[in-house]
Amino acid sequence: MKFIKKTIPLLIVFVVGVLSLISYYVPHKTSVNFIELMSKWENIVSAFAFLLGLISLFFSHYHKISRKVDGWGYSIFVFIGFFAIIIPAILNHGKSMTAAGPTSLGWAYSSIYTALSGTMFAVLAFYIVSTAYRSFRIKSKQAFVLFVAAFVLILGKVPLGQIIWTSVLGWTHVTVSTVIDWIMTVPAVAGKRGIMIGIAIGAIVTSFKIIFGIERQYLGKD
Fold first, then answer.
1. Whether residues 120 and 181 fall in one domain
2. DSSP letter string over 132-159?
3. What does the alpha-carbon distance between residue 38 and residue 30 come to, in Å, rounded to a whole number?
4. Is a pLDDT exceeding 70 seen at residue 52?
5. Each residue of 161-219: pLDDT tens digit?
6. What does the alpha-carbon distance between residue 68 and residue 75 come to, in Å, rounded to a whole number?
7. Which contacts of 156-164 are long-range, i.e. CB under 8 A and separated by 24 or more positions?
8. 141 and 123 fall within a common domain
9. Which residue range forms the structural domain that includes residue 1?
């Protein structure tokens, strides 16, 4: 039983992982065909994973409603929102527009989904402001640099800020737009590249841990 539950999955992950890694560095038709085959299987597995996640989501909210736990009323809107989009999508074969004009799916998307998305981001704005306030507390040199950069960006995005910059620093003949462009193209890009390099290294290390059986959380608790 242990061989079926642990050894076979580890062998499959090892073989597929090593072959996928080698195929990217071997310029041969067989390698290209293997990568294309793996891409198709990835789409199939992703579709089943999405379906499994959707079923799990429905069962989770169903149990909340049946048990009437705290906030169970919000779970009802999960089902309402899902069927309000999925039913028009099925009836109109996924088309939001036709020659006659917008379909019921297009109306549901623009009147329900877009409105709810705007509301969600409007609510998130308060959390963003609160987080920014805590982040801009100057406790170190790095925090001071972050504060100055953010202050200049905010100052340059509003007309009043541009007027203040011109009246105070107009003698330098350097506009706030020039400073913002330099911040976004030099320090911001450098920081972004450093973050992307760190993410890439972390992904490589995690991949090797999974391929060689060091990371086994996908096998389950048992």
1. no
2. HHHHT---SHHHHHHHHHHHHHHHHTSH
3. 12
4. yes
5. 788 888 887 788 888 888 888 888 998 899 899 999 999 999 999 988 988 888 887 77
6. 10
7. 156/180
8. no
9. 1-69
